[in-house]
Amino acid sequence: MKVLAAMSGGVDSAVAAARLRDAGHDVTGVHLALSAKPATMREGARGCCSVEDSRDARRCADVLDIPFYVWDMAARFRDDVVEPFVAEYAAGRTPNPCLRCNEKIKFSAVLERARALGFDAVGTGHYARLSDGVLRRAADPDKDQSYVLGVLRPDQLAGALFPLGGSPKTEVRAEASERGLVVAEKPDSHDICFIPSGDTRGFLAERIDEAPGEMVGPDGEVVGHHRGVHDFTVGQRHGLGIGRPAPDGRPRYVLGLEPVSRTVRVGPAEELDVTALHATDPVWLAEAPTDCVVQVRAHGGLAAATVRVDDDGVEVTLDEPLRGVAPGQAVVFYRPEPGGDVVLGSATIASTSR
Amino acid sequence: MTYLDHAATTPMLPEAAATLTEALGRVGNASSLHSAGRRARRAIEESRETIAQAVGALPSEVVLATGGTEADNLALKGLYWARRTADPRRTRVVVSAAEHHAVLDAGEWLAEHEGAVLDVLAVDAEGRADPAALKALLDDHGHEVAVVSVMWANNEVGTVNDVAALAEVAHAHGVPIHTDAVQAVGAVPVDFAASGVDALSLTGHKLGGPVGVGALLLRRDTPCTPLLHGGGQERDVRSGTLDVPGTMSLATAVRAAVADVDRRTTTLTALRDDLVARVMAEVPDARLNGVPLDRPGERLPGNAHLSFPGCEGDSLLMLLDARGIECSTGSACTAGVARPSHVLLAMGLDEDLARGSLRFSLGHNSTAADVDAVVEAIGPVVERARRAGDALARS
């Protein structure tokens, strides 16, 4: 096959490209430039869009002896990932930009362009197993990224290759070292690539106007004020800016965000427990299940659940309560299997109930 | 492989490579007083004389440097500083909008860090800097201008400026003028003295010499403040131990290239015209940028710069590369990202068309087979790139 290997400049995508080449594919490396004004040097371990990362990717492609190009996806990334990310926060929801990037950029804009240019598939360094259209969790449970891929449609998965899904990360690093790839010891990127400082609140504050409102306790009492619902995520404990403790002395958490009335609801931890949620815009890779396991955020947040598809989306009833379920995040549906939990589909969490 | 990127760098001439490799085994610092030093100095000075003779300069006007970027920076900054020192009112720097980044960015740096005011002289739809426009600017601001820089020939679209006319305008206002002739020397006739310019950049690797050696031709009566301080080599304008093998090889290449200009002009013009005509036959809506081919003296013989509506230049580049054809989008890169060329935008192309452009640049060893390869590939490549462009617009 003619395969386009998306190369971020990190160790995973470099080894993925190497494995694709070794598997006999005709591989071309592409680095996606996602920032209109990339920083020259990486800042710490974060980010993946600096000129230095682009050079790392090129260096790996040269070692692998595959052609390499940089594709400018900055405008698409801004329109389809960054701006919706900001808008979601402004609307009191908690988006996952990595998931959106997979859905809208890597396996949409990039895949479509690759197909038009004569490629059969896009390969990435994601940790997930994919064969015959069946997407499963990675063999390395700590690295599993099936959650951020669960949003892909069957036609998108048909053009995807994830050659690292069966390997633990340590093996991938060792392999990079054996192959002479200079990125073998490069730290993992984490957080959000377009916020290299890691300061999400500061990033949002520059882009969202202040919309001050009240912070309201369990009985409707005003316990404080805030600069805008975008400063908060459901389940957040720190940085609430409430001077005095709750009457019972227990910590308070963000329970809900109401952007229209500009209200942040806070309360004790047990009120974060969610027993049901409603999600919209489902994507199914298999027949919609009735009983399954759901995951409601990128790390953790698993529970057995009963699923009912309705006209508005999906009603999910959890067998046991989950804490910190934020509207805007995806719920991904899994069927447990010994060979790796199978992804059945996903939907976007719209509301939760206790 | 079909190499049609000679404007980026051209293969070394065999005689230049031979000169270089032979000289690499020798020892000698041209500043030393012993016999090895004398031998090195003699080699340098003979090379300097050879270069000077080939381009109509005096040997003492040849300031050896590492190449076009250094020569351009030395000219812009050195002439600016020297002129401003002599007359503090002279703080304006005039460059054409189609300059290479080595000139443009040096000018911008002077504006940001040295209190200069940068005047960017518009170019016409063919990429040419108009002497009348320069005159109009200098009529208003001539007494404030420290230096003018307008390239001899454009690296992207190949447009040749009327450098002598521009120099006349600059001098009428008492302003020194520099020209970046990196693409011109060895491609079109270049005579430093006859052109009237005060400074001229040339580099080895664009004319069949080695990378890393070039020169700034600098009139003896033109003050220039050095960028590099040290041993006082090169008239105290450019310190640094001289590269004897590189300079010898540069001289060999300059002499050979300049001697070959007439033959190359005939050969490359014919190949280039054939390439353009046949590509246009394959892709009827392709568009030639720059000077029309019926005015050959105003365009570099080896330059064919074409826009393909509906295509992304980097898609075209990638698809041609996959077929063994090496050319360029001719645009600046940030993290390797293709931005629309500032030259094409200055010529009035819209951004989409500017993005869908390719530069094929022929050189001393180009053949009819190279042209055939492009003609054979271009139709399917453009068709596929258009589909990719459509896909991107749709998705």
TrEMBL record, chain A:
- Catalytic activity annotation: S-sulfanyl-L-cysteinyl-[protein] + uridine(34) in tRNA + AH2 + ATP = 2-thiouridine(34) in tRNA + L-cysteinyl-[protein] + A + AMP + diphosphate + H(+)
GO cellular component assignments: cytoplasm
For the tRNA-specific 2-thiouridylase MnmA-like central domain, which residue ranges apply?
202-267
The UniProt keywords, alphabetically, are: ATP-binding, Cytoplasm, Disulfide bond, Methyltransferase, Nucleotide-binding, RNA-binding, Transferase, tRNA processing, tRNA-binding
Tell me which CDD domains the record gives: MnmA_TRMU-like
Q: Which GO terms describe its biological process?
A: methylation; tRNA wobble position uridine thiolation
Q: Name one GO molecular function term.
A: tRNA-uridine 2-sulfurtransferase activity
Its predominant location is cytoplasm
* Pfam families for this protein: tRNA_Me_trans, tRNA_Me_trans_C, tRNA_Me_trans_M
Show where the tRNA-specific 2-thiouridylase MnmA-like C-terminal domain sits.
Answer: 275-349
| Site label Interaction with tRNA, positions | H126, Q329
Q: Which EC numbers does the record give? A: 2.8.1.13
Q: Where does ATP bind?
A: A6, M7, S8, G9, G10, V11, D12, S13, L32, G125
The segment annotated Interaction with tRNA runs over 143-145
List, alphabetically, the InterPro entries matched. Answer: MnmA-like (IPR004506), MnmA-like_C (IPR046885), MnmA-like_central (IPR046884), MnmA-like_central_sf (IPR023382), Rossmann-like_a/b/a_fold (IPR014729)
State its location(s): Cytoplasm
Locate the active site: C101, C193
Q: Which family does it belong to?
A: Belongs to the MnmA/TRMU family.
Outline what the protein does.
Catalyzes the 2-thiolation of uridine at the wobble position (U34) of tRNA, leading to the formation of s(2)U34.
This chain belongs to the protein called: tRNA-specific 2-thiouridylase MnmA
Q: What is the organism field in this record? A: Actinomycetospora succinea
TrEMBL record, chain B:
Which EC class, in a word?
transferase
| UniProt keyword Lyase present | no
Protein's UniProt keywords contain Metal-binding = yes
State the Gene Ontology terms under molecular function: cysteine desulfurase activity; iron-sulfur cluster binding; metal ion binding
Catalytic function, reaction form: (sulfur carrier)-H + L-cysteine = (sulfur carrier)-SH + L-alanine
- Supply the Gene3D superfamilies for this chain: 1.10.260.50, Aspartate Aminotransferase, domain 1, Type I PLP-dependent aspartate aminotransferase-like (Major domain)
UniProt cross-references to Pfam families, sorted A to Z: Aminotran_5
> In the Enzyme Commission scheme, what number(s) does this protein have?
2.8.1.7
Keyword vocabulary terms for this entry: Iron, Iron-sulfur, Metal-binding, Pyridoxal phosphate, Transferase
Give the signal sequence positions.
none
| Chain ranges of the Aminotransferase class V domain | 2-374
Q: Which cofactor does it need?
A: pyridoxal 5'-phosphate
Spell out the family assignment given in the record's similarity comment.
Belongs to the class-V pyridoxal-phosphate-dependent aminotransferase family. NifS/IscS subfamily.
Mind telling me what this protein is named? cysteine desulfurase
